[in-house]
Amino acid sequence: MGRSWLRKIPLDWAEVHRMTKEETGLTDILKRHAAVFGEDLGSMRGITVKLNIKPGSQPKYLKARTVPYAIRPKVEADLERLVKNGVLIPVTHSPWATPIVPILKKDGSIRICGDFKVTVNPVLCAEQYPLPRIDDIFAGLAGGQRFSKIDLSQAYLQMQVEEESQELLTIVTHKGLYRYCRLPFGITSAPALFQRAMDQILCGLPGVQCYLDDILVTGGNEEDHLKNLEATLQRLEEYGLRVRKDKCAFFQPSVEYLGHIIDATGLHKSPSKVKAIVEAPPPQNVSQLRSFLGLLNYYGRFISQLATLLKPLHELLGQNKVWKWTDACDVAFNKAKCALLNAEVLTHFDPSLPLQLACDASPYGVGAVLSHVMPVKALRRGETNCFCFTHFKHS
């Protein structure tokens, strides 16, 4: 067919695009598992929540707190929504009663939370299940070329609470008593319970990592990625879970996950998080200093000799230490922020590459760096007869 024939066909050829195998494969997968992206609230199948309280604990019934008239209609609307979705059921009496805390969301709506820290949490037997270590999660993503991020919708509320435990989750409002049938936010054991459930659901799936309601899927190539993604969506569908499609991202060259930017080369610091730390003003007391050090230590693996650098600041945290922000503290504070601006990348572990361990210690610091030894350039004849290496992996 010649070009002259193309002019006869009523199509806007400038807007015709070639669909890649990746795009068509992803589209087919999302269509096959459309139920996972439903608007209804998911209900986790086969896994329920049982809460246990310490022996001898007495029920605690508190009065309803006053709700400002300005937000009462929104609070009542959210109560109706939760009842309609099967999250709450109205009850007439209960030995337990937890007051609510209405939280105003960015879109102007209200989210109702129970203030369980004053009732159930102090007597609750805490679940002993660990959250994943960030280092372990990133190690499990090694070899990934592109990444798909899946966000569960109203994660905790997708878990059903066993009937004998629901009494503990009674909330008291200006409209009366309501009892949670689903796992609410604010319960001490909620993160452990949910993480254990998700580990059970996603167990055995390659290229999949999960931290609470955030799931990351990858693969060594396009075909593996598609297989891993479909297996993940299939597993979520089997367990009756729902995902927010507007918060998902598929086959991205890089994604932000747990405060890091992750891509095929490794881990990078999140620019927005770095900006917040760098723009932080000097602390005025111990509490503010602890907050700053906590933020900085989250990226501590990117900063060489951090303990030595922060020595003047750590000295302010000593017992019976009088707060005095000295010039040395100011220098350490600013140097630490400057060090955070480096372009260090933590590469994914590759068992095929050689490792190098470097250790160091001083009277007030000890540290170690585990690195991959990787060539960064090939030298031409006439240049120094040696190899250039760069160290990426820090731990």
- How many strands appear in the DSSP assignment? 18
Radius of gyration, rounded?
27 Å
Q: What is the strand arrangement across the widest sheet?
A: 2-8-7-3-4
H/E element order: HHEHEEEHEEHEEHEEHEEEEHHHHHEEEE
Query: Helix segment count?
Result: 12
As for the CATH topology of the domain at 267-393, it is Alpha-Beta Plaits
- The helix-and-strand class reads alpha+beta
Sequence stretches where pLDDT stays below 50 over 5 or more residues? 382-395
Strand-residue fraction?
15-25%
Q: Round the mean pLDDT to the nearest integer and report it.
A: 86
Compute the separation of the termini in Å: 61 Å
EC number: 3.1.26.4
Family: Belongs to the beta type-B retroviral polymerase family. HERV class-II K(HML-2) pol subfamily.
GO molecular function, one term: RNA-DNA hybrid ribonuclease activity
InterPro entries: DNA/RNA_pol_sf (IPR043502), Retrovirus_Pol_polyprotein (IPR050951), Rev_trsase/Diguanyl_cyclase (IPR043128), RT_dom (IPR000477), RT_RNaseH_2 (IPR041577)
Walkthrough of the structure:
It comes from Pelodiscus sinensis (Chinese softshell turtle). It is an enzyme of class 3 (hydrolase). There is one protein chain. With 395 residues, the protein is α+β, with helices and mostly antiparallel strands. Among the domains are: 134-154 and 187-266, Alpha-Beta Plaits (2-Layer Sandwich), CATH 3.30.70.270; 267-393, Alpha-Beta Plaits (2-Layer Sandwich). The chain is built from twelve helices and 18 strands. The chain has helices at 3-8, 21-32, 72-84, 134-139, 163-166, 190-201, 222-238, 271-278, 286-298, 306-309, 311-315, 327-339; strands spanning 48-49, 88-91, 98-104, 110-114, 146-151, 160-161, 170-173, 176-180, 208-211, 214-219, 249-252, 254-257, 260-263, 266-269, 346-347, 355-362, 365-377, 388-391. A hairpin with a 2-residue loop joins strand 9 and strand 10. Helix 2 runs parallel beside helix 7 (222-238). It is globular, with a radius of gyration of 27 Å.
